[in-house]
Amino acid sequence: RSHKRVVDCRSDIDRMNAPLLAIYESLVPKEEEKSNQKQLLTSLEKLVNKEWPTAQLYLYGSCANSFGVSKSDIDVCLALEDPDINKSEVLLKLADILQADNLENVQALTRARVPIVKLMDPVTGISCDICINNVLAVVNTKLLHDYAQIDDRLRQLAFIVKHWAKLRGVNVTYQGTLSSYAYVLMCIHFLQQRKPAILPCLQGMEATYVVTVDDIECAYFDQVQHLRDFGARNKERIAELVWAFFDYWAYRHDYANSVISVRTGSLISKRAKDWTRRIGNDRHLICIEDPFEISHDLGRVVDKYSIKTLREEFERAANIMHYDPDPCVTLFEPY
Ligand code: GTP
Ligand code: MG
After folding, report:
1. Chain-wide mean pLDDT for the chain?
2. Structural domain boundaries of the chain?
3. Distance between CA atoms of 141 and 61, rounded to whole angstroms?
4. Ligand 2 mean position to 155 CA, how many Å?
5. 192-234, pLDDT tens digit by residue?
6. pLDDT(39) > 60
7. CATH domain 137-331 topology
8. Do domains 31-133 and 137-331 have the same CATH topology?
């Protein structure tokens, strides 16, 4: 009997694999979209440099970490050398400049947690958020980008998880669910834990890239072109990985005691981080350590209501992958 079950399982996986890959392919941005983004960045650079000649613009977030789906907004960081600038003043000035250049929906959000200027480029239709001196985000964008070069299955898994999270309404930080950045870290950690491992722990290897940002040393092995066959011994395909990912977060993760840590490539204990009790608004109900700002829990947005929603969604997804004859439709049904 157990042999028959294994056989059924295999054929289920075979059946689910192609449709999942097709969903992934449909989400990957086309070349034209990428070149439109570059073009917009170039024209923004020209505008910005008229006012601040030494300023640099960097893309960060999903348009630069290789986890961006088609038609995403782009995230831009304006790096100014002067450390004593008043961010609100700069943002208001920037908004004036952009408005004068016929960019649309220009809005300075100076009181947000990360203050930004929003805009829409009427030529390409691309929306864009510009923040100031958020260099750590540029560095963690590079880390995610580098992980994505090692094994294609990371990008496949993360696209499917992000797509699921958006459609199921659990990718809304102001409602207490997780950011896209948090979901990608969950995927990286999950692939580091497979046996045999599909991803290495880059921060545990000899550092070939070292920068210090806001007193935080960011160091890791970034020569990832040498790691292209790291995961080759593991033959799991995307359907198995999607199923096991949801099964892990539904039934196996120890929410009470464990922190997932891409930095160490392992689970660490909440006790070791002193993340066992609520301090201020940090409840630590699901713990995801930021790879560089290690005191930062990306699960901090999750509260006692939204943790229930999240876990129910993980269980729903795991059960669909397990029992549903046509999981690719049900899994992504809008809530
Ligand atoms: P989508 O826009 O949903 O496709 O995803 P995204 O990758 O752009 O994600 P998100 O909007 O969640 O975050 C944008 C970038 O901001 C991330 O890639 C990170 O570089 C950075 N970021 C987001 N949240 C945090 C955070 O809590 N801490 C730090 N250090 N960086 C963050
Ligand atoms: Mg984004």
Report:
1. 94
2. 31-133, 137-331
3. 6
4. 16
5. 999 999 999 999 999 999 999 999 999 999 999 999 999 999 9
6. yes
7. Poly(a)-polymerase, middle domain (1.10.1410)
8. no
Q: Name the nearest CA neighbour of 191 among 146, 241, 156.
A: 241
Name the pLDDT band for 3 (thresholds 50, 70, 90): low
Question: Which residues are paired to 109 by β-bridges?
Answer: 116
Q: Is the CB of 127 under 6 A from ligand 1?
A: no
The verdict on the CB of residue 52 being under 6 Å from ligand 1 is no
Nearest CA to ligand 1 atom 2: 62
Q: How far is the CA of 193 from the centre of ligand 2 (A)?
A: 27
For ligand 1, say whether the CB of 63 is within 6 Å of any of its atoms: no
Q: CA 258, 321, 328 angle in degrees (round to 5)?
A: 125
What is the number of the ligand 1 atom nearest to the C-alpha of 171?
3
Query: CATH number of 31-133: 3.50.50.60, 3.40.50.2000, 3.30.43.10, 3.30.460.10?
Result: 3.30.460.10
Helix, strand or coil, per DSSP, at residue 305 = coil
Residue with CA closest to ligand 1 atom 29: 137
CA angle in degrees (0–180, nearest 5) for 308-261-112: 65
Q: Could you give the ipTM of this predicted complex?
A: 0.95
Examine the pLDDT at 329 and tell me if it is beyond 50: yes
